[in-house]
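Side project, low priority. Logging it here so it doesn't get lost.
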Amino acid sequence: MPTADEIQTYLAGAWRLMSGRPDGIRMLDVSADGFWNSFFAIVIALPAMVVGWVTIANDLAMLGDGAPGRLFVVVTLAFVDLMAWIVPLVALAVMARPLGVADRFVHLVVANNWASVLIVWLLLPPALIRLVAPDQRDLAALISLALFGVSLVLSWRLMNATINRGAAPATAVFVTLLAVSFAVLIALQALFGLGG
Protein backbone atom coordinates (compact mmCIF):
# COMPACT_ATOMS: atom_id res chain seq x y z
CA MET A 1 0.00 0.00 0.00
CA PRO A 2 1.47 3.39 -0.95
CA THR A 3 2.08 6.02 1.73
CA ALA A 4 0.15 9.30 1.86
CA ASP A 5 3.18 11.16 0.46
CA GLU A 6 3.53 8.68 -2.38
CA ILE A 7 -0.16 8.97 -3.21
CA GLN A 8 0.14 12.75 -3.32
CA THR A 9 3.12 12.44 -5.67
CA TYR A 10 1.30 9.96 -7.91
CA LEU A 11 -1.78 12.18 -8.13
CA ALA A 12 0.44 15.18 -8.95
CA GLY A 13 2.15 13.11 -11.65
CA ALA A 14 -1.20 12.06 -13.09
CA TRP A 15 -2.31 15.69 -13.13
CA ARG A 16 0.85 16.71 -15.00
CA LEU A 17 0.11 14.03 -17.59
CA MET A 18 -3.50 15.21 -17.84
CA SER A 19 -2.12 18.70 -18.38
CA GLY A 20 -0.17 17.38 -21.37
CA ARG A 21 3.25 17.21 -19.70
CA PRO A 22 5.01 13.88 -20.39
CA ASP A 23 7.46 14.47 -17.53
CA GLY A 24 4.63 13.61 -15.13
CA ILE A 25 5.39 9.94 -15.79
CA ARG A 26 8.60 10.33 -13.76
CA MET A 27 6.45 11.01 -10.68
CA LEU A 28 4.73 7.62 -11.00
CA ASP A 29 6.04 4.25 -9.85
CA VAL A 30 6.02 2.07 -12.95
CA SER A 31 7.78 -0.88 -11.31
CA ALA A 32 5.96 -4.19 -10.77
CA ASP A 33 5.08 -3.09 -7.22
CA GLY A 34 3.98 0.31 -8.51
CA PHE A 35 1.73 -1.38 -11.05
CA TRP A 36 -0.14 -3.36 -8.40
CA ASN A 37 -0.08 -0.50 -5.88
CA SER A 38 -1.75 1.78 -8.44
CA PHE A 39 -4.96 -0.21 -7.96
CA PHE A 40 -5.11 1.31 -4.46
CA ALA A 41 -6.45 4.31 -6.42
CA ILE A 42 -9.82 2.55 -6.33
CA VAL A 43 -9.86 2.92 -2.54
CA ILE A 44 -9.08 6.63 -2.78
CA ALA A 45 -11.85 7.13 -5.34
CA LEU A 46 -14.33 5.12 -3.27
CA PRO A 47 -15.86 7.95 -1.17
CA ALA A 48 -16.75 9.98 -4.26
CA MET A 49 -18.08 6.89 -6.01
CA VAL A 50 -20.27 6.02 -3.00
CA VAL A 51 -21.98 9.43 -3.25
CA GLY A 52 -22.89 8.66 -6.84
CA TRP A 53 -24.20 5.21 -5.96
CA VAL A 54 -26.32 6.56 -3.10
CA THR A 55 -27.72 9.27 -5.37
CA ILE A 56 -28.77 6.71 -7.99
CA ALA A 57 -30.19 4.43 -5.27
CA ASN A 58 -32.27 7.35 -3.95
CA ASP A 59 -33.52 8.16 -7.46
CA LEU A 60 -34.57 4.56 -8.05
CA ALA A 61 -36.22 4.33 -4.63
CA MET A 62 -38.53 7.19 -5.65
CA LEU A 63 -39.91 5.01 -8.44
CA GLY A 64 -41.98 3.09 -5.91
CA ASP A 65 -42.70 -0.53 -5.12
CA GLY A 66 -41.16 -2.04 -8.26
CA ALA A 67 -37.78 -0.44 -7.62
CA PRO A 68 -34.91 -2.54 -6.26
CA GLY A 69 -33.81 -1.91 -2.68
CA ARG A 70 -31.22 0.76 -1.99
CA LEU A 71 -28.61 -1.65 -0.62
CA PHE A 72 -28.97 -3.87 -3.69
CA VAL A 73 -28.52 -0.83 -5.95
CA VAL A 74 -25.42 0.43 -4.09
CA VAL A 75 -23.76 -3.02 -4.05
CA THR A 76 -24.63 -3.61 -7.70
CA LEU A 77 -23.31 -0.21 -8.78
CA ALA A 78 -20.11 -0.88 -6.83
CA PHE A 79 -19.65 -4.10 -8.81
CA VAL A 80 -20.51 -2.38 -12.11
CA ASP A 81 -18.07 0.48 -11.51
CA LEU A 82 -15.32 -1.90 -10.42
CA MET A 83 -15.78 -3.89 -13.63
CA ALA A 84 -15.86 -0.66 -15.68
CA TRP A 85 -12.51 0.26 -14.09
CA ILE A 86 -10.79 -3.14 -14.44
CA VAL A 87 -12.14 -4.68 -17.66
CA PRO A 88 -10.86 -1.87 -19.96
CA LEU A 89 -7.37 -2.38 -18.51
CA VAL A 90 -7.64 -6.12 -19.25
CA ALA A 91 -8.73 -5.21 -22.78
CA LEU A 92 -5.72 -2.90 -23.04
CA ALA A 93 -3.45 -5.80 -22.01
CA VAL A 94 -4.88 -7.83 -24.89
CA MET A 95 -4.82 -4.94 -27.38
CA ALA A 96 -1.55 -3.28 -26.37
CA ARG A 97 0.55 -5.03 -29.00
CA PRO A 98 -1.88 -4.45 -31.92
CA LEU A 99 -2.20 -0.81 -30.80
CA GLY A 100 1.60 -0.50 -30.78
CA VAL A 101 1.88 0.41 -27.10
CA ALA A 102 2.97 -2.88 -25.49
CA ASP A 103 6.12 -1.25 -24.12
CA ARG A 104 3.96 1.45 -22.47
CA PHE A 105 1.31 -0.86 -21.00
CA VAL A 106 2.48 -0.58 -17.38
CA HIS A 107 2.87 3.19 -17.73
CA LEU A 108 -0.66 3.46 -19.14
CA VAL A 109 -2.25 1.36 -16.41
CA VAL A 110 -0.46 3.18 -13.58
CA ALA A 111 -1.20 6.61 -15.06
CA ASN A 112 -4.81 5.70 -15.81
CA ASN A 113 -5.44 4.37 -12.30
CA TRP A 114 -4.15 7.49 -10.55
CA ALA A 115 -5.81 9.81 -13.06
CA SER A 116 -9.12 8.01 -12.52
CA VAL A 117 -9.04 9.18 -8.90
CA LEU A 118 -8.88 12.79 -10.07
CA ILE A 119 -11.66 12.25 -12.60
CA VAL A 120 -13.97 10.54 -10.11
CA TRP A 121 -13.56 13.43 -7.67
CA LEU A 122 -13.95 15.95 -10.51
CA LEU A 123 -17.34 14.40 -11.32
CA LEU A 124 -18.53 14.54 -7.70
CA PRO A 125 -20.31 17.97 -7.67
CA PRO A 126 -23.32 16.93 -9.82
CA ALA A 127 -23.89 13.87 -7.61
CA LEU A 128 -23.73 16.08 -4.50
CA ILE A 129 -26.23 18.49 -6.03
CA ARG A 130 -28.62 15.62 -6.81
CA LEU A 131 -28.15 14.24 -3.31
CA VAL A 132 -28.78 17.45 -1.35
CA ALA A 133 -31.10 19.21 -3.82
CA PRO A 134 -33.02 16.56 -5.80
CA ASP A 135 -35.17 19.24 -7.41
CA GLN A 136 -32.07 20.66 -9.17
CA ARG A 137 -31.72 17.72 -11.58
CA ASP A 138 -31.43 19.97 -14.65
CA LEU A 139 -28.58 21.96 -13.10
CA ALA A 140 -26.85 18.74 -12.02
CA ALA A 141 -27.25 17.29 -15.53
CA LEU A 142 -25.79 20.40 -17.13
CA ILE A 143 -22.79 20.43 -14.80
CA SER A 144 -22.37 16.70 -15.25
CA LEU A 145 -22.29 17.05 -19.03
CA ALA A 146 -19.72 19.86 -18.87
CA LEU A 147 -17.50 17.96 -16.43
CA PHE A 148 -17.78 14.79 -18.51
CA GLY A 149 -16.49 16.75 -21.52
CA VAL A 150 -13.60 18.09 -19.45
CA SER A 151 -12.80 14.57 -18.21
CA LEU A 152 -12.67 13.27 -21.80
CA VAL A 153 -10.19 15.99 -22.78
CA LEU A 154 -8.05 15.34 -19.70
CA SER A 155 -8.12 11.57 -20.30
CA TRP A 156 -7.03 11.94 -23.91
CA ARG A 157 -4.22 14.29 -22.88
CA LEU A 158 -3.13 11.73 -20.27
CA MET A 159 -2.95 9.01 -22.94
CA ASN A 160 -1.07 11.29 -25.32
CA ALA A 161 1.47 12.38 -22.70
CA THR A 162 1.93 8.85 -21.33
CA ILE A 163 2.46 7.22 -24.73
CA ASN A 164 4.38 10.28 -25.99
CA ARG A 165 4.34 9.15 -29.63
CA GLY A 166 1.77 11.45 -31.18
CA ALA A 167 -1.97 11.72 -31.45
CA ALA A 168 -2.74 8.53 -33.42
CA PRO A 169 -1.61 5.94 -30.83
CA ALA A 170 -3.08 8.05 -28.01
CA THR A 171 -6.42 8.26 -29.77
CA ALA A 172 -6.45 4.52 -30.47
CA VAL A 173 -5.82 3.70 -26.80
CA PHE A 174 -8.28 6.34 -25.60
CA VAL A 175 -11.09 5.12 -27.88
CA THR A 176 -10.42 1.48 -26.94
CA LEU A 177 -10.58 2.17 -23.19
CA LEU A 178 -13.64 4.41 -23.53
CA ALA A 179 -15.54 1.95 -25.74
CA VAL A 180 -14.86 -1.01 -23.47
CA SER A 181 -15.77 1.00 -20.37
CA PHE A 182 -19.11 2.13 -21.87
CA ALA A 183 -19.84 -1.40 -23.10
CA VAL A 184 -19.27 -2.81 -19.61
CA LEU A 185 -21.41 -0.12 -17.98
CA ILE A 186 -24.30 -0.52 -20.40
CA ALA A 187 -24.22 -4.33 -20.39
CA LEU A 188 -24.01 -4.72 -16.62
CA GLN A 189 -26.58 -2.01 -15.86
CA ALA A 190 -28.96 -3.71 -18.28
CA LEU A 191 -28.21 -7.11 -16.77
CA PHE A 192 -29.07 -5.88 -13.27
CA GLY A 193 -31.99 -3.71 -14.40
CA LEU A 194 -30.43 -0.39 -13.42
CA GLY A 195 -31.03 2.64 -15.58
CA GLY A 196 -29.56 5.22 -13.15
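Brief comment: The mean pLDDT is 92.
Revisit when time allows.
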